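Technical annex, item 7. During the second reporting period the consortium partners agreed on a shared format for inverse folding records so that results from different sites could be compared directly. Each record opens with the tokenized structure and is followed by the designed sequence. A conforming record, contributed by the partner at site C, is shown below for reference.
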């Protein structure tokens, strides 16, 4: 288990917080410490039935432990339990949210904008597409077939038609297919994904911006996973680097601080380039607001009650680790990227494995299939190695990918359909240092199933 500095640090910070309310008369809490201790012990035992998401040997899904300062700040805020729907419910935490979101917007080059935190990336994308629908009523939403599945669901909720655009062999939106869809007419918004869930693919935003000038539509960038890579352009290959350089030209952007941003779940963020879209949120609620004439965050959000603790944790983290190129936070992203590039290179040097034919990862997600006589056999090997890795405390993931992505030239007899592949998300800075151990356990697992 990794040493946890949070309890001691939190205890001292709690004393400072309590001193700030020292003028209040004492109001002892009516609790039974012994009963709480028993329940917490039982809770800890139950939580042990989890994968070790916090450990470098967990390299499966998009799960990254919150920074210790984020956990401590979140717990500290829960002493008050602020609600960032209104300044009456979260005076300090509302200000902290405004400051933290402004720093995220500056990361994308925006000084004038409208934005706030959400309880998830799904809610953030919902707001982005809701505003798009308000500006272009009844028009279609277009997104890559590799875009997150929630975009189709969100469009259905908004009663807007959604059309899937095929992806190329790098998992990126196919530009010819997109232009064909645009020529059909009626597309109001194109969802551009910078960091797909399956392989971390980055849609060609600069080229899509050219199509926008020709056809006229909004661009909503779903950078829930990849947004923070804007800070390390020097670590990215040209197509992804160019896409992140152009992100400021989008109409709306979503990024999830609870992914690469070192935050607890759930913490999403939505930003709009034009602050005037705030007019769509206008409402009257005289029973909620009564002490402040300043703008309430609830007046620019579809959500009502929102955890102020999320804003406090994000503010504290960005205070410690500013979102600056070359800073400590950016260096952590670069280390994960380096780990992914090296792991992919080791796979390509080994004749047992077949990484994506189009080239190395665009971000920090590595995917590969097992070489076998048939896709079915390759899938069974992937399943077996996945299980064998887990027995060695190395946790990977499985993903279904188009078989053609591994053989775009058509050399295989059967190139249709999907194949089960192995996938690793190397998003922790520690993954770079632990890569030799990860490879050793992976190689051992392959030997365990007869692929050594």
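Designed sequence (site C submission):
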């Amino acid at each position: 288990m990794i040493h946890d500095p949070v309890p001691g640090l939190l205890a001292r910070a709690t004393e400072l917080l309590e001193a700030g309310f020292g003028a209040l008369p004492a109001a002892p809490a009516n609790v039974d410490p012994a009963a709480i201790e028993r329940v917490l012990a039982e809770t800890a035992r139950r939580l042990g039935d989890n994968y070790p998401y916090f450990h470098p040997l967990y390299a499966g899904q998009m799960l990254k432990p919150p920074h210790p300062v984020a956990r401590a700040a979140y717990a500290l805020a829960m002493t008050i339990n602020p609600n960032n729907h209104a300044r009456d419910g979260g005076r300090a935490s509302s200000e902290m949210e405004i400051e933290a979101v402004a720093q995220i917007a500056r990361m994308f080059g925006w000084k004038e904008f409208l934005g706030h935190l959400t309880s998830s990336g799904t809610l953030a994308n919902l707001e982005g597409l809701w505003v798009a629908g308000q500006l272009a009523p009844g028009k279609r939403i277009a997104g890559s077939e590799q875009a997150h599945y929630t975009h189709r669901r969100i469009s259905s909720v908004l009663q807007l038609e959604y059309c899937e655009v095929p992806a190329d062999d790098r998992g990126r939106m196919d530009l010819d297919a997109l232009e064909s869809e645009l020529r059909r007419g009626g597309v109001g918004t194109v969802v551009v994904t910078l960091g797909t869930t399956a392989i971390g693919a980055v849609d060609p935003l600069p080229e899509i911006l050219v199509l926008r000038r020709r056809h006229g539509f909004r661009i909503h960038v779903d950078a829930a996973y990849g947004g923070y890579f804007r800070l390390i352009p020097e670590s990215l290959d040209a197509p992804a680097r160019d896409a992140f350089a152009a992100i400021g030209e989008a109409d709306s952007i979503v990024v999830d601080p609870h992914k690469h941003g070192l935050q607890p779940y759930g913490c999403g963020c939505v930003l709009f380039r034009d602050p005037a879209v705030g007019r769509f949120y206008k409402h009257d609620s005289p029973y909620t607001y009564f002490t402040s004439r300043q703008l309430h965050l609830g007046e620019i959000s579809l959500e009502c009650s929102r955890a102020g603790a999320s804003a406090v944790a994000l503010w504290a983290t960005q205070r410690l680790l500013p979102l600056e190129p070359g800073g400590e936070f950016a260096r952590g992203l670069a280390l994960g990227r380096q780990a992914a590039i090296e792991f992919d290179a080791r796979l390509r040097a080994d004749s047992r494995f077949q990484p994506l034919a189009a080239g190395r990862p665009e971000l920090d997600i590595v995917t590969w299939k097992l070489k076998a006589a048939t896709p079915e056999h390759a899938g069974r090997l992937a399943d077996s190695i996945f299980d064998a890795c887990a027995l060695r405390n190395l946790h990977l993931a499985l993903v279904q990918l188009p078989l053609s992505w591994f053989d775009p030239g058509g050399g295989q007899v059967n190139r249709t359909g999907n194949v089960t592949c192995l996938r690793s998300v190397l998003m922790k800075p520690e993954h770079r240092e632990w890569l030799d151990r990860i490879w050793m356990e992976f190689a051992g697992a392959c030997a365990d199933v007869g692929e050594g």
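The chain has a mean pLDDT of 92. The CA atoms of residues 70 and 313 lie 4 Å apart. All partners now use this format for quarterly exchanges.
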